[in-house]
Amino acid sequence: MVSIILKVVGGLVGFLVLLLVREQIVEFQYKSKAKKYGCAPPLTILDRPFGFPSFLKLRKANSEDNIFFWAIDYIESLTDKYREPGVSKDVGLWTTRHQTTFDMNILTVDPENIKSVLATNFKDYSLGIRYQQLLPLLGNGIFTLSGEGWKHSRAMLRPQFSRDQVSQLESLQDHVGTLIDIFKTKSRGGNFFDAQVHFHELTMDTATEFLFGESVDSLHDSQRRVQGPTRLVSASEFASAFQYCLAKLSLRTHCGPLYFLIDSFEFRKRISICHNFVDYFVYKALERPQTTEKDSEGYVFIHELAKETRDPLVIRQQCLNILLAGRDTTASLLSFLTYYLARDKRVWNKLREAVLAEFGETPDSLSFESLKRCTYLNHVINEMLRLHAIVPLNFRTAIVDTVLPRGGGPDQSKPIFVPKGTKVVYSIFVTQRMKALWGEDAAEFRPERWAEGTTHTWDYLPFNGGPRICLGQQFALTEIGFTTVRICQEFKDIIFTGSPSYHKLPQSTGLTISVANGVNVSFVPVDEK
Asked: pTM to 2 decimals?
């Protein structure tokens, strides 16, 4: 027994020694190649042992629902700790080379570096192991694929988000009308309720109708079940399982190459619920008669996909990828916006005044074009997208040796070397709250900043940028704008319960973010005295 223990201990010690030796070799090779490429050294943080201290801090912050506010504080602490003598205090530590779970990654919030990764040197990067990390739930789709597979997925999706498709508001008006009725009913007698739940039901209904040609009508009946291949699943069951799975997928991305450790029977069970729900729409589409004639229902994504392939697995995977974007991101933004408007009466009153002046008290004049003309409405939405980028963290993996334009030298103005296989992690959430880019009031909800004439490009990317920019951007903005206008028309106030502050609002983090403890409010109808 003792000999076995000694062998195990000896093996572990040997493994650790090999890792340390590998670490030194990697550092030597990095410095040698960086010189060859004419790059200056970035700040390198060897977070021993093997990046685990930062990983544990990250997990703790995530469990406390403040991971990205922790990241802002962490970057500021690094700046204070490592700023070299003579370097201006205005120069922040925006790019570092950081050890995380056995890997040496580059972490950046510098707009120029983000531009390089997403656009200028787009071909130098892929999604890396994100495919494997997200595979159990999402499979092969637009958010997991690179190269030709991604190009094919994007080409198939583009017609769905044409202006003609996005500007058709009839079904949206019906669903939002149902939402308004629910808000009125739930608010009777000054009752408080979680509006975020119903925003997710709204976007579930609009997304399924827009993408599948049929709504699940979860606002009417969230317990209504659809029949998948192996089980019945309700919209509420799907929503719960989907949220659980997204949290697990997020954790898998945080674990880097150790992502495979995040797995369980419960995880697979929830994945099965999600797959069965979407398979209902898949098999219904496959049962439709095949025809080359133009569909009388207009362009419906799943119907067009069924013309290209009869493989239900391929169709399901593509649909799940799109449902992720169509449901969660828009619902989260509406939830954050409602949370803020309930607490900031100045903005709420100014927005409501602008809406009533532009559209009156009914939805009759609402259109894709008129929503774009309402200036203050768009400023409010832009400001909320700035403060709460719904996809707050992302990364790309270098597929060749390449270079980032900034991050080297004491003032971070020199290029830095990015070896093949290195993950470049960037946080839009942090970039969009940086005081150096947005002013001393960067943490404040101030829509008026969008009327000040300052141009923002790569420091404002709520829908990503470059060739992979979100195809559904206009669809999301239209739904957010339409819903916000109808709330302003039907209600004269939003009363909140809980903290009066929106600063460092707790956020649940999966692949997207949401309000951690819900949006507990009561709406006051315009006809209430």
From this structure: 0.90
